[in-house]
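P.,

For your records, the input lines for the assembly:
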Amino acid sequence: MSITHLQEQIKQAAHEKQRLQIIGNQSKVSLIDNHTPLEIGGYTGVTSYDPAELVVTVKTGTKIADLQQELAQHNQMLAFDTPDYGDSTIGGSYACGLSGPSQPFFGALRDFVLGIKMIDGKGQALTFGGEMIKNVAGYDVARMLVGSKGLFGVVTEISLKVLPLMEEKTYSMEMGQADAIIKMNEMAGTALPISGCAYYQGKLYYRLIGIHPPQSAMPEDNTIWQKVNPFRPEISGKQKLWRVSIDSMHPPIHNTLLIDQVGARRWIVSEHKPDVSHVDLWDLQDKKRRPSFDSHPKITDIKKGLKSVFDPYGIFH
Amino acid sequence: MNVVQELLQSFSREQIIVDDEQKAPFECDGLSAYREKPLAVVLPASIEEVQLALNICRKYKTPVITRGSGTGLSGGALPTQDGVVLGLSKMNRILNIDPLARTAVVEPGVRNITISQEAAPHNLYYAPDPSSQVACSIGGNVAENSGGVHCLKYGLTVHNVLAIKVITLDGEELTLDYKDDGIDLLALLNGSEGLLGIIVEIKVKLLPKAEASQLIMAAFHKVSDCANAVTNILKSGIIPAGLEMMDQFSIEAAEAFAHVGYPLEAAALLLCEVDGNQYQVEADTKKVSSLLNENGAYLLKLSQNDEERIALWQGRKNAFPAVGRLSPDYYCMDGTIPRNKLAYVLDQIDDMSKRYELKVANVFHAGDGNLHPLILYDAQIPGELEKTEQFGAEILKLCIDVGGTITGEHGVGVEKLDSMCQQFSAPEIEIFHQIKQVFDPENLLNPGKAVPTLHRCAELGQMHVHHGELPFAHLERF
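C-alpha cells returned:
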C-alpha cells in the first residue's frame, strides 16, 4: 500500500462520485452500505523514532499493541491509555479521539499529537504540525482533526509525543459513589503522583506512578484498568451504554456503572439518554455509531464549512 | 457617519481612543520594529461591548485587531491604518476559582501570573509560564498558544485550557469545550492569532503545586557536552519540570544583570529543575547529578532552598532584558529543532554571526528544542535592521532544514510570514486561507497576519514549478 495508491483511489472516487469509508482493522466500525472501503489497516510501521526526542512517527494502520511494544523496548509508552478493542489501530484511536484513565493527569490523545500527514478529498497529500513538542506555525489542523472520525480525509501518519514507561501501583478504598466523587477530586488536588482514579462496584481505585509515600488503602493488581478501559459491560434487553463527559465534581447520575477520570467521565447503562450535556451513545456491538450533533447551529455551520474545505466533493462518509 | 463616529457614539470617552498621541502606545506590540497607528482603539469591558464593537466594525467593513497586554513578540497585534484595535485589558476579572474541581474561569485581560496568585491559597497554580507572565494576558496566551519554561512537562497553553467563550465575526457567542465530541474547535482556536474569533472567556486547568522542587545548575566547558547531557537526561526516563540552556554570551549578560552566581567562564550553562513528591525528587536529583557528571559538567550546584532556586531562575528569566542592556536593539528569534541537532545548529548560528558581523546570544528551552537566538543590532545604522531580519530568516530556514519549525511559542504574526512559505506547501497554505474564510469570510479579523498570501510565497520563489506547470497560475504576481 502506498500514498500514491490512496491518492489515486480518492481522486477516482471524486471523479465517479463514490463515497468512501476509511477502514482500519474494523474494531470500532463496520462497513456502511453503498460505501467503498478505503483500507488503511495494511499501512503499518514506525517511520521514525528517536527515544531521546520523546517523539514517535507512525503509519496510522499500525496496531496500538505493536506500537506500545516497540516503545516499551526503549522504556517508553503512549501516555493517554487509549483503549484497545482488539487489533485497534492508532489511526482509529486518533479518528475517535479515545483516551483512558490517565487523561486528567497526563492529557488526552489530542494533547500528545504533534503532527500528521493526510490526504484530503481532492487527493492532495498534506502535512500539518511536525515532530516538535512546541510548534505554533499555522492553524493546528493536526489537533483539530482528533475525533473527526475520518470525515475530512485519511490521516496516513501521526507524530506523537511519548513519555517514559512508568512503574505503576494500584490501590482501592470502599465507599459510596457520592463520597468517592469528592474524595477523588480531593486526591487529584494533592502532590500524590496519580495516573488513574476511578470508581467501580463500590470501590474507589487509584493508580500511582514512580516513588510515592506508603498508602493505607488496599493494594490491588493493575488489571482493573484493563477491565474499565475499554469498558464493555454486559448489557441486556433495551438497555444502552452511554458515555458522559462532565465536570469532575458533578453529583452522582442515576444508573452509573463506572466513574472514571476523577469524575469527569461517567458510564451509564439505561434505556434512555441521560439528561445531561456531552452524552455519547456508546454501542460498539452494532458498530454503527453516528457522530453526535452540536446544539449550537453556528458550530454546526462552522463544522460543515470546515468539512467542505477538506472534502469539497463529499466523498468521505 | 463613519466607523469612528459610530464607535464614539456607542462607547464612553474612557473606552475609546482616537487622539493621535494617545494611540501611540497601541501602535506596536512587543515587536517594536513594526509600527502602525490604527483608526481608533476601543476598550470594551464586557462581552456585550465586544459584540457591539464588532457589529459596528462589521457594518463598515473595518478590520479588527484584538490586543491583550501587547507583549507578543511576532507582531500579532500590529494595528492596520484602516483598522480598529480592540483592547481587552478592561476585561480582567477572575470569574470563578473552583479549588475542588481545580479550575479557574477568567476574562481574557487577566494577567497570566494573577491566576496562579489567586489559586495559591488552595495550593494550586496555572502551569504555562511565558517569561512575560507578570504582564502578558491569558487571552493573548490562548490566541498565541504561548509556552514557557515548564512546557516540556506541563504543556503549552492548549494543554491547559478546558473551554473558551468566543465571539465570531457576526457577533455570535460560542462556547468551545474540551468535552465536545467530533472536530476539536477548541484546539483550532488555540494559537489562531486572533484570525478566527475574539476570545472573551477562558476556563483553565489548575494543577496542585509540587511538594518539592530541586534546581540543579551545571556548567560545561563544551557546548556539545551540554547538548549531550540534555539528550541523556531525557533518555534516562526523567522529564524535568524545566530544562534550560544558555551560551557564554547569555551567561555573562544575565550575571551582570541579575548577580545570581552563574559561572562566567562556562561555555554553556544548564538549569535543570525536577519536581514532584519528596521521595521522587530526591531520587531524580541523584540520577540527574550523576548523568551531568558523566556528560562532562565541571561544576554542579544544587539549590539549597526555595529562595535560592527562584534566584537562580531569575538570571535565565531576565536573560532578554539583560542582553538588551548590551545593545541598542536586539531581535529575538523563536525556532524549534530536534534536540539531537542542538550542537550542529549552534555551530551554524555561530558561523552566520561571523558572516553577518552581528553578535548573537543563545538562550533556549533545551528540553523541548525551542531556540531563542537574540541577534544584537543597532536600528540607527541604515540597513542593519534589514540585515538582522535576513539573518533571522536564515536561522529559521536552518530550523526547517534540520526537521524543526519556524515558531515554537511566539507565533507567526507579521514577522514570520515569509518563513511560512518555506515550512508549508501552497496547498497547505490554501487550506489555511479556506479555514479562515469559514470563520471570517470578509477577512476582517486581524487580516494579513499568521498566513501569507500565495502570491507572497510566489514572489519569494518558494513555489516550485514542476514539469513546467506553474502552480496557481491564475494568481497575480507583483
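Two observations worth noting. The two ends of chain B are 35 Å apart (CA to CA). Chain B has a mean pLDDT of 94.

Regards
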